[in-house]
């Protein structure tokens, strides 16, 4: 069951999402969730830079689509899903920075978590780390309930195997929950910079789209002009081949 503190905080965020106050609503959500999401992305990836990048990407996406997010009764779920999906994107493996090995994880549970597959890592963090039900985790990860349940079972089994090899014992769910809910000591970007960065990106994309459209129109117009100027004149009475004039096949 949701704690009284979380329920009160969620109600505060919902009140801030009143029409005409988009900046206040976004800022409240950012202040409430950004630190925790950075920590979660770090648990999923083991890379602090990628964790920051994932959360900044998620919040910029949220601000770009804020009217839609503001209507959602649980905007945090959407931001969290965006951050987790970005953090675990397979495309990061082609980036030089992501291929560099990070510093060894100090916590043995975190080491074992990173040894799991990305899908297993994510469902285990959601269910055992953040306390979501299998149904909620399935909805957030766009999976069926049987698939999410199977991933969770396999993740727990593999995590236990990893810790047995390390001769470590204890309540894994409780330890993962404590690890996931730890406060991040990292300094996150100012919310104003996230919003302005998103606005600047949208303006740049708009200029690029208009520029490409104008260029395409110019190319089409130029091609049409050249074709009409240098095209062969139409001869309805026939055509001349060498010294012989043909007349409609006669």
Order of helices and strands: HHHHHHHHHHHHEE
Helix content percent band = 55-70%
Strand order of the largest sheet: 1-2
Number of helices: 12
Q: Which residues form runs of ≥5 with pLDDT under 50?
A: 203-211
**What percentage of the residues does DSSP assign to strands (E)?**
under 5%
Q: How many runs of DSSP E, i.e. beta strands?
A: 2
Taking all residues together, what is the mean pLDDT?
78
Describe the largest sheet: 2 strands, antiparallel
Key traits:
mainly alpha, 250 residues, two-stranded antiparallel ribbon
Structure description:
This protein has 250 residues and is mostly helical. 69% of the residues lie in helices and 2% in strands. A hairpin with a 2-residue loop joins β1 and β2. The longest helix has 40 residues, at 191-230. The radius of gyration is 28 Å and the shape is globular. 25% of the residues are buried. Mean pLDDT is 78; it is low at 203-211.
Short recap of the structure:
The chain is mainly alpha-helical. The chain has helices at residues 4-16, 22-45, 48-64, 66-71, 75-87, 96-99, 108-114, 118-129, 134-140, 145-165, 172-180, 191-230; strands at 239-241, 244-246.
């Amino acid at each position: 069951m949701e704690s009284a503190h979380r329920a009160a905080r969620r109600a505060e965020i919902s009140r801030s999402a009143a029409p005409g106050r988009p900046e206040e609503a976004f800022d409240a959500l950012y202040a409430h969730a950004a630190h925790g999401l950075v920590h979660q992305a770090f648990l999923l990836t083991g890379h602090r830079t990628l964790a920051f990048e994932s959360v900044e990407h998620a919040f910029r996406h949220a601000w770009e689509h804020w009217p839609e997010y503001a209507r959602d009764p649980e905007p945090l779920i959407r931001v969290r899903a965006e951050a987790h999906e970005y953090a675990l994107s397979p495309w990061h493996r082609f980036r030089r920075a992501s291929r560099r090995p990070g510093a060894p994880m100090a916590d043995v549970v975190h080491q074992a978590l990173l040894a799991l597959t990305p899908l297993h890592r994510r469902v285990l963090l959601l269910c055992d780390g953040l306390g979501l039900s299998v149904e909620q985790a399935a909805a957030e990860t766009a999976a069926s309930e049987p698939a999410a349940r199977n991933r969770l079972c396999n993740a727990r089994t593999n995590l236990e195997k990893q810790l047995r090899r390390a001769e470590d014992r204890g309540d894994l769910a409780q330890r993962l929950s404590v690890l996931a809910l730890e406060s991040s000591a990292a300094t996150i970007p100012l919310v104003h910079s996230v919003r302005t960065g998103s606005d600047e990106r949208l303006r740049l994309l708009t200029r690029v789209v208009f520029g490409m459209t104008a260029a395409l129109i110019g190319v089409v117009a130029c091609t049409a002009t050249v074709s009409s100027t240098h095209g062969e004149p139409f001869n309805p009475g026939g055509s001349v081949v060498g010294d012989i004039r043909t007349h409609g096949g006669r």
